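Work package 3, deliverable 3.1, input record:
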Amino acid sequence: MITTQRSPTSGGGLQSPRSPPSQIPFLSVSVTDPAKMGNGVQAYISYKVITKTNFPEYQGPEKIVIRRYTDFVWLRDRLFEKYKGIFIPPLPEKSTVEKFRFSAEFIEMRRQALHTFVNRIALHHELQQSEDLRTFLQADEQTMERARSQDTGIFKKKPSDLMQIFRDVQSKVSDVVLGKEKPVEETNPEYEKLKRYIFELEDHLAEAQKHAYRLVKRHRELGQSLADFGKAIKLLGACEGDALGTAFSELGAKSEMLSVKLQREAQHILMNFEEPLKDYVRAVQSIKGTIAERANAFRQQCELAEAIKLKEIDLNKLRLIRSEKMLDAEHELGELKADGEEATRRFETIVRLMNEEIVRFQDQKTQDMGLAFHEFAKGQARLANGIADAWRSLLPKLDSLSVS
Amino acid sequence: MNGSQNHTEESDEEILNDHSSLTSNFFSNYKSAITLLFSDDNHHPLTTSAVTDPLLSPPSPPSPPPQLKNPVSNTDSHIHHLNSNREESRFIENPNSDIDSHIDPLTYSDLDFTSPNSNGEGSQLFENPNDESNMTESMYLKIAVSNPQKEVDSSSSIVPGGNTYVTYLITAKTNIPDFGGPQFAVRRRFRDVVTLSDRLAEAHRGFFIPPRPDKSVVESQVMQKQEFVEQRRNALEKYLQRLSDHPVIKLSDELRVFLQIQGRLPLLPTVPVTSRMIDGAAKLSKQLLWDDSGARFLPQDVVQPAKSRWDFIRIVKEMNQAVSNDWGGSRPPVYEEDGQFLENKERLLNLEKQLINAAKQAELFVKAQKDISETMGAFGLSFIKLTKFENQQAVFDTQRQRTADMKNLATAAIKTSRLYRELYSRTVKHLDTLHDYMGLILGVHSAFSDRTSALLTVQTLTSELDSLYARVEKLETSSSNFGSDKPKTLKLGETREAIRVTEDAKSCATKQYERIKENNRAEIERLDRERKADFKNMLKGFVISQVAFTEKIGNEWASVATETSAYAKHDG
């Protein structure tokens, strides 16, 4: 199971092989060492991608390459194209705010997310076989760049584009090709339920994640205000002098100390809870992409089925009048039938894969969230107890003030 | 954390809705927060004031034995059991919530602390051990201001159709014998308060009298009239209570008259400027001209500070005197005590500065506590919704497992939110001491300037005397070169008479000055003593609250952490 938070900045693979290396096949990747490259508008961050494996298809036991964000995007898009039906692991978003792009926090969060991304692929029994993955993990930078620029054409259909298609499909009452008022959607009630579930889930998750992020901010704010308060209290204590003054300054000191704890907890929540939650949201969005693919495949299947029907009618007509076009028509029908079978096969593969994926997904999310909740609770307990202890330590001194 | 899911969720949302109804825009000022906190439910005038400051609350009237001087447990309007219940937990009054039943009573033993002398503030101005001073200590006067009403000033001749103004109902509860009764109520307008304030300032020179609320009338476009009236009501209440807490002023006639006499306030109103100037000028010109034509002025008149009478000629004289003092003119005799006084003055001014800063930071800190409470609550609620949703749609068992985990998290978050909320309100109460002293210390300025102007008067009179004596000498030594003795004798007589009068005035002024000095000294001492006691209680109360609540919060999360610990093992 991939854990989002166990990613120290300086590398360290996740899947340490437990048994003698060459026995059990493993593929472990780490994304580390973000470095700023280039200047000005052209500047970007590059990452070191370290692969350790015993897969025979790979060039060797270890390989290190340098990759940038767009390379990861390329990989995701290729996988999305090739492995329809499988929930492709999500990528962190592009940064919309310019000035944030190079902040340490953003870079670290992105690195972690990319790390998780690649590892999920590496652990997926089908995706890990991908040739594109091999290219990504091993090719030198020029090859990588070439591959990247080649694919700005056909394969550049991003999930978001597909989402648009999906929406169009949903909203189109009449299909242009068929020229009939036929909804091109599956009527599978279970699947309907799943679709609704996914869409609503995204909304709920997004809201929870929003509040989680706000909570991070609140911790920071509380920390800051406590630090300022501590300073002010110390100054006030200086006016008082004697035992009371000392009490004040100790209180001030504790405040400042607790402020640090609060900042740390804020960071902990961000990395170990809010980010996994965001990852969950992204995963759900990725599933929406797969849903769109399935709808596409279904539509194609339907279109072809319809076309075959029409062709058969045509053919029968031609047979009756013994036209010389009959042979061509037979030939075309054959082709259409082959296409139809292919389309059906593709669709059914997607359905099958999706069913498997959804089970995996639910299991994985329970684990991911369980861990995130655990980390959150641990952090909160640690913080609260730390605060209680700190204040409690002041009480003996405050008690002794009574005598005066 | 059982019971039906719906039941719990309802109460969670109820609690949280309760929450959000308090989130209105004027919460940004935590002082208003206090008002809201206490006027939250039924705003009963006397209970409001009675629960404002536990430290100054009277020792429990005769019976109930264990006197809880516990600021953390008794002052919240939600608490029913004032005396018996040491638990901080029964503060949330919601019968529907079964979450509340899971909030355990505090384990922290020292929650209920009592300060060594049962009154804490030890408000003694006069340090005699006899009964009288104890009586002063135990005398209380509680004020509540409420029920603002618009009234029309029918006697106003300036504006046709009359002036409207607001009156407030001022209720007083007391055991001071002079009042002759336990409870009174009068209606007063703000102008009356200004009058009271002026009269008090005149009669109690040298005391640290809390300054009254500003006169400033805010444009109705800037602030809703209602909001303004509410702010003013609150400010008046605080001001009057502060006056009532002052050991000398609470016994003053001016205050009693203000609180007791129905109808028009029988205190001399503050006279408009122009007439005062004219008055002053007229009186002073008589002084200058030794006009014998009947008007005699009392030495006491002289010792009123010039400023308040706008005796501009006198002001000029005194200004000259002040200048000549600075320029090394005649050294007034009292400078040797100044060292101590100046030291104290500087110390108090510095204290004022730090108090203002600390109060500001406290305000921000307190707001941050409130914010985190709200966000934690919204956070918890969003997970409750998620839980509900996932449960409805669950197809797999693993989903149900996840929702169980989520529910634990959400519940803990909501509990935490409420705990933070309560901690916030207690912190507000404790740290309000800072605000109180910030207000009190402003009274120092007027007390010190009373002293300065009294000293100035003495010095002015002294140098007057000097010049009068010089005159006498000159008259006596001037030979009878000019004609008849008669005018000279007359002049001499007049001058000697003036000397006599001025000597009297000076002696009066000196007495006044000495009295003010003594008042200053006693007040400084009282301020220091009370402040130390109050600050100590503030710190203690603040710390205890923090400990109590964060302990509880820690426990909540510790159990969630334990319940989810299985996931940690799955790691790797």
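Residues 1-15, 171-179 of chain A have pLDDT under 50 and may be disordered.
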